[in-house]
Amino acid sequence: MKKTREIALPRQRSKGTKAVTHRLNRLRTHTQPGRDAEGARAAGEAKRDVVLDCGWGRLLFAQTFSDDEKLLSELREEAPSSRDIVFYVRDPHVLLSRAPQEIFLDPSHTYRLDLWTYRANTRRTRGITIRRLASEADGDGINRVYAACGMVQIRSDFFSSERDDRSLTYFVAQDDATGEIVGTVTGIDHQRLFDDPDRGASLWCLAVHPQARQPGIGEHLVRKLAEHFQARGLSYVDLSVMHDNTLAIGLYEKLNFRRMPLFAIKRKNAINEKFFAMPHQSYDALNPYARLIVDEATRRGIHVEITDAEGGFFRLSHGGRSIHCRESLSELTSGVAMSICDDKAITRRMVSAAGLVVPDQVEVGEDREAVRAFLEEHGKLVVKPARGEQGRGISVGITTMEALEEAIASARQVCDRVLLEAFFEGEDLRLVIIDYMLAAAAVRLPPRVIGDGRSKIASLIGKQSRRREAATGGESRIPLDAEADRCLAEQGLDLETILEEGREITVRKAANLHAGGSIHDVTDLVHPDLVDAACRAARAINIPVVGIDLMVRDPAEPDYVFIEANERPGLANHEPQPTASSFIELLFPGSRTAV
């Protein structure tokens, strides 16, 4: 036995040494992409000066360029409204020194997933299908996701034009219930693109719609792309992620991506300005609704002074004109118009006088028999505080006197005066009117969750609420309150119920975004009569920027009832419609030329 161990031990050492040597060699090869490529180019085996058009801009693979001047010359050819990226820069300090006024070091980290150690996912997706891009309609869906995420969109002719399909791969996540594209990821096969001797690949533009309902979409997309490249026999997948994108970095590290000492360079342009220019003081404290407008003003060369970041206040100055704003509320809106919008009963009377269709409404008094009679007359009611915003204190679809008393008590916590309104079955339509013209139209849907067969409804709501908070900078969350309890009880459920896999339920009936609702653009579909009604309401109130809420059976049909007017509509909720651009154009006509 002793001799056996003496003989076996050297063999184990030899095997272990080979394994360690193999890993070290792979690490040396993969730490600096292009190190072997230089020798390959000298032998004429690899392509030179590789530039790939991605629709939103171009990727310039630095390791394929023979010198920095040629690389800079190519970067200077960046098209308007595009974002070109020089990737795999090994010596960024040297490249930056050659054109410091034109380029900057992108504040992103590079991460790598080694495919030779990657293990495929065995857990199947629920409620979504991950598949390859199949049509131009899918391309439109990708752009809707990009717009919702604040990303540069792909130009309209890209998917229909000639492109290298062999090196570019698009995967999309499609909602099984609605058919909508709710996520996307792009992959580039370096081997097919430029005969990469390292047999690498890269991941770009991972995006999930902020209002997607299913959890884990981003992870499924990353895994699908990794498994796709692994099947092709590639060695690794690289990606670039902003240094402060903690959620994305957490996902990549969970999937065993590791940091790499590789860098990206970009050109100084209007799209990239926030990464290289001195930021506005207190900019980071602004909410998404104020930040959207500040970004648009900065892009146009309009001076911005943030006067109270937490409240969303800022002053815009340009060409001798100065206007103070709170998000989309500006000094152009009069105090009278604000007071009309502030009181829902007054708003209803004003727009009714202008010819709009309004629901029956009464104010709750001491006479409970009158309250009971109103409920019996209409069968189903909406209860709301006479003054308030962001959906606080609103209960929808009340059918019993017991529920009505609870809803009235909830509304009185927001305002002493409470209104009862006849319920109109349909969809909640928000029309944003700027300068008495339609800027955007969107259907707002109440928050919903999808069961996985394992989790309690309270847990599902918590996950969905955290996603909504992350997507809106903390502006939207789903309250676990009496309204949620009532909505669940009507479906025979409660917060402790384990929801069966694939079942989708509504967790509260109010569709306000601040209460976790979602929004879906219908600007191109909305019926002209609905647009006309919203514009007439704005003129009746004499308010230049307003969100008009209607209940409709279908946004493409003319039937509606007026619900309320919001003097400070959240413009950031309506991408891809250019609401911020319309708002700035109202404040500073002709400023578009300053872009």
From TrEMBL:
Keyword field contains Ribosomal protein: no
UniProt name for this protein: N-acetylglutaminylglutamine synthetase
Gene: ngg
Keywords assigned: ATP-binding, Nucleotide-binding, Plasmid
Any Pfam family matching the protein: Acetyltransf_1
Highest taxon of source: Bacteria
SUPFAM superfamilies, per the entry: Acyl-CoA N-acyltransferases (Nat) (SSF55729), Glutathione synthetase ATP-binding domain-like (SSF56059)
PROSITE patterns, sorted: ATP_GRASP, GNAT
CDD domains per record: NAT_SF
